[in-house]
Each structure stands twice: as structure tokens, then as C-alpha cells.
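Q: Convert this sequence to C-alpha cells.
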Amino acid sequence: MTKNIMIVGVGGQGSLLASKLLGHLLLTEGYDVKVSEVHGMSQRGGSVVTYVRFGEKVYSPIIDKGEADFIVSFEKLEAARYVEYLKEGGRIVVNVQEIDPMPVITGAAEYPSDLIGKMQSKGIQVDAMDCLGLAEEAGSAKAVNIVLMGRLSRYFDIPVEKWQKAIEECVPPKFAELNHKAFSLGRGEK
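A:
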């Protein structure tokens, strides 16, 4: 049975490291893994989407609408933008941070209100948390990606030690301690 995870965010938020970490971990667990990165205007703060598919045998790296078991979102509007990719019974893990897209910055549009509530009112399971605040508590605003991975890890039967080992193998040693702390905070551990 193939499982599908979409990681969505805005350019420069670290979604590529998150997908690398997840892919690495799942490979060490013996799964066939396909990771596919779809870049929008990532250098300009546009959408960045990464697909991570894993199972016994995965033939395509692409996730279609209604197929994602999880959507991991670095920002609320990105979660709402890709919600139609979530399968029934799927879950969204989302950072409650708001990053204004260009139409909001230019004054042509307003940032939508109560996106989390709107998704929940449609029966969608949303696990929303202040990942930026937790990343800053860990020591760097750039660790939002690892906070999100910590939160996602709660939904997997993979021991925490294996996630921590994957972090050590995917981040430079000088950032390992910070990332371990960010991961633990994301899991809800002190």
C-alpha cells in the first residue's frame, strides 16, 4: 500500500530539506521511495511543492488530487491551496504562520481569514501549531521544517531514535543539536 505525503510551502522555507530527511528515513526503513520536487517561483517566495511517496513498490512520483495521506504545510494559505489533494481521512499538519503572497503585498487582495477553521468545518483533520515560535525556541527561525517533521513523526510507527538518526545524517553537524531540539518541540516533547 503506497502512502503519499505532500510538503507545501513558500520558497526558502526549507521544504527541500524536509523532503530529503523524510525520503532518507523511509529508505532506511526499507521502503521504495519516490521524491519529486515541483518548484513554482521559489526564488521569489512562490509555492514549492514536494511529493514523497513510499511503499513496497512505487511507480510514479506524482500525487494526484484526493491521494495525499498527509499534507505538511509551512504556511496556512498553502495548506488551503492544496487541500483538494488530501484523501478522505487524511490529515494536514500546518504551521499557523501567515506569509503574504504577492497580491496581498501589493494590496490587490486580503489574506483570507480563519483558514484553519474553514478547513476543519469541512471535516478535515488539521493539526495546526506555531512552528515558527517553536523553531525560534529551538534556536533558529529556519528550523520550522524540522519542527514540522517532528509533528509529522507522531503519525508514524517509526521510533523517534530513527528520526533523530536521519536528522544527523541530513544536516551539517554544527546544526544537529538545534535540529534535534526543534524536532522534539514539534513532537510536543520538552
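The chain has a mean pLDDT of 93.
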